[in-house]
Specification:
homodimer; Alpha-Beta Plaits; six-stranded mixed sheet; three-stranded antiparallel sheet; 40% helix; elongated
């Protein structure tokens, strides 16, 4: 059975303007790979309701899971929850379960649960909450869409909350062979290898560090023995 | 007149599998911002011809410019040029101008211009070349799509080649106010500010470093005086 598929949707002007370099996609990619879910696509859009809705609908239809990051805080530019509820035609309002979490949290910290903070309890009607052990305000899952915070430490904690609830497949395994020759010298060998092992994915990534140049050949797949066989053959053919 | 719009398409299994963390999008975002071109969307797809074609067609129609990175090297997994030619129904083959560049380069370096390396001279018929001062093998522009290498140092050099040829708009300016208070405390003030300055984009990005928590408020726009006015009002209202 093929692995479940996934897409990621990163929401935020700060990333598209170049102010902030996203790290959530790279983190999620690694976690999904370990969990046997294949990340097939990622999209980055700005804090714009129509852009969010269009993207989340397209991705939700095309893949088994969609993971979003960003736009669920207390400020005016945090519009993700409303946009996603609207995209799926679901009602949204202050949810009592989310409010209770926030009340307990702010009582402990001595901060006021004002109107802005209460916005973080706006959750689509039929969604289930995603636990946030870092700062309490929850994410949520609506259908196959998992909506999480953009702050990396919170995003990572939410991924850790939601991933064990999802059925994974075979983890994607990989082995890398470092070859100190130009890509162009090994390309034909790789091409024949890719034909012989068409159940594996074989990538070639050139590097140039301190005057040494070469390529890392990465063989990926779910069958460790096949990957071993491909790497062994490649090392022999290239005399590495 | 509004600024030209742009999208980016990042191509490569190595990024979606979590092996490599992309840096080209963050670099391009910063360069476009300086050049007055608004990056509206980015997509990441794997080394899959159909995925590349679908994405590049959608983005080419929706935005003034599309910038791609990845998949134009000499190995079997480098399929970007062919996929993009196919997407636009344009022929592709070894182009003599590109071949001449590679011949001169490999003669100088003493490496063989073999069949694999010659693949890097496969350029769509009506495309114009993008200069690559780092490693010679060119990128290309086809219509409004600018196709560039994935290796960051080469990607950056190609962006430097192509960007001056594109008409930019007003550079996006920004100022940041650091506020050592929780987002929830300043959210209402920000919301009113965003209403009063609806020609500007006002974002709020929480941080927590060494026990100090707060938020960076970023005001973006093309009119420096308006940004000044917004930041001044905000600082006064928050007593910063």
């Amino acid at each position: 059975m093929p692995n479940p598929t996934a897409a990621m949707l990163v929401i935020g002007d700060e990333i598209l303007s170049g102010r902030t370099r996203d790290s959530n996609m790279h983190f999620l990619a690694g976690e999904l790979t370990k969990h046997g879910i294949d990340l097939k696509e990622a999209r980055f859009v700005s804090d714009d309701a129509e852009a969010i809705e269009t993207a989340v609908k397209a991705l939700s239809q095309a893949y088994d899971h969609v993971f979003t990051s960003g736009g669920i805080g207390p400020t005016h530019d945090d519009i993700t929850a409303d946009a996603i509820a609207h995209a799926f035609g679901v009602g949204i309002g202050i949810r009592e379960d989310a409010r209770a979490l926030l009340e307990a949290h702010y009582e402990k910290t001595g901060l006021e649960l004002n109107a802005a903070r209460l916005r973080m309890a706006r959750i689509p009607d039929v969604a289930t909450l995603i636990e946030n052990p870092v700062s309490t305000a929850p994410g949520f899952t609506l259908g196959n869409v998992h909506v999480m915070a953009g702050v990396p430490v919170v995003f990572q904690a939410m991924v850790a909350s939601v991933l064990p609830t999802l059925t994974g497949g075979a983890p994607l395994l990989s082995q890398t062979l470092r070859v100190e020759r130009g890509e162009g010298d090994i390309a034909e060998t790789l091409s024949l290898l890719a034909e012989a092992f068409d159940d594996l994915s074989i990538g070639c990534y050139p590097f140039q560090v301190n005057g040494v140049f070469g390529a890392n050949v990465v063989v990926r797949g779910t069958d460790g023995a096949r990957i071993d066989a491909a790497i062994t053959r490649l090392a022999k053919e290239l005399g590495v």
